Amino acid sequence: MMEKMIFGRYVPADSIIHKMDPRSKLLIIFLFVCVIFLANNALTYALIGIYTFLMLGLSRIPVRFLYGGLKPVIWLVLFTLVLQLFFTKEGTLLFELGPIKIYEEGVRQGIFISFRFFFLILMTSLLTLTTTPIEITDGIETLLHPLNKIRFPVHEMALMMSISLRFIPTLMQETDKIMKAQIARGVEFASGPFKERIKAVIPLLIPLFVSSFKRAEELAIAMEARGYRGGEGRTKYRELSWKNADSLQLGFLVILTILLILLRS
Amino acid sequence: MDISLKHVEYRYQKNTPFERLAIEDVSIDIPTGVYMAIIGHTGSGKSTVLQHLNALLQPTKGSVEIGEHEIVASQKNKNLKKIRQKVGIVFQFPEHQLFEETVEKDIIFGPLNFGVSETEAKERARIALKQVGLAEEILEKSPFDLSGGQMRRVAIAGVLAMEPDVIVLDEPTAGLDPRGRKEVMDMFYSLHKERKLSTILVTHSMEDAARYADQIVIMQQGKVVKKGTPEEIFSSPTELVEMGLDVPEVVRFQLKLEEKLDMKLEKIFLTIDELSSAVAKRISRGVRS
Predict the structure, then answer these.
(1) Do A182 and B94 touch (CB under 8 A)?
(2) Are A28 and A106 in the same domain?
(3) Nearest CB to B81: which of A177, A186, A206?
(4) What ipTM did this prediction achieve?
(5) Are residues A168 and A67 in the same domain?
(6) DSSP states of B130-166
(7) Best of A1, A185, A214 to mutate (most B CBs within 10 Å, chain B)
């Protein structure tokens, strides 16, 4: 059932995007999320669209897989479109049917905002699709390193993140296993009245909680047994290396930003 | 209830970059009342086969007949609940599925789901508990207060209380101590004999397969590579060793004995008793013949 999920999933491939430093990817995503709000006319949106699809193309993620995974999101995008259509009351009136009034500005805003939403989703999924969770946490840890000065526990936070990310697949497997065991005992997760389906979650959640607590305790004991004592003086097995390609990509985004500023109305 | 797999293929995560072929062209017939062992290494596809036996997985090619129901690839199947009542599965580490407040509630959970009345379900819980060798006092305890071995037995009782016609066991003794292992295996064997339960044991233990099964299926890399009675399977032990599989201790001993004494017994023996009496008989006649 979760086979088509693409959020938070890493797809290994040999591409320029995969090889980039996670720090540059994180910076680019952060900048992109800010920069996308600069777009306010068809030309600037087209630019952002071209940039997004160029990045997707470079990442070599199979289009069919992306399409399958993003299908549920398209409904969300359509929903925002409809919301904008009905609730923006500016510009000339285009269409009227009883209480429903659609204005020119509503159509414009609706289309723009759904595109913005769509591009944002594409770019952020691209980050997780091309970067392993460990790389992401390593990247965040080094980027946030300066915060250590104000006594922010950067290493502990990064450790928490990597542990939780590490156990997502384990938890998914476990969910699948327990679900199957309970289905074999006559539970119906996918059909039946709504109330029954809510009740069916209990035999799934309780075993999951029990095993998660057990696993957390075992992990804590194992870490203690191996002498773990936090981030101070710790060296890294995987070292991040900033390459020319990273500077190039960042420069590319800066050029896009300048273009957007020049071309926006 | 007969179960029959016909040219079954299963691919995980079909149509994604993660697509993986798990089993291919698997055909197995499981007639009513048989005790069948499915043997293979980890990753040989034996657990995938197991999940087809009560329609937890639907084949991506081929078909599975379970009693009068037929599960075919690429078709929505209904009435799966009826199948699941008839085919009980004891998963690996079944104690992970316990969730209720008391042992009794957990055991009657399955039967209640299949529409059995509460009084009858409770009666069944008592019987099942006795079958797995636990005392009745345990019924009111929380399953999470029990020892690992007891939890395992309670979980097994939960499947037995469904009163299935076919019972599928996935490594039911993994993680138990040798004594617990033998007790659990003997219990399933006597259930098989008394209730004429078809039993399908998925395992990598050759000893268990040799001791209990009427039929053995050997799987390797998603395919069935050998089928037959234990005598047939173990009569060519070198072939098994080439596949990286173990041969039961008794058979190994017999082979060594035959080699050292330069003789051949009339057939392969699977139990110590049979082998020792055959050897004794041979010795009384004189070793060489």
Answers:
(1) no
(2) yes
(3) A186
(4) 0.87
(5) no
(6) HHTT--GGGGGS-GGGS-HHHHHHHHHHHHHTT--SE
(7) A185
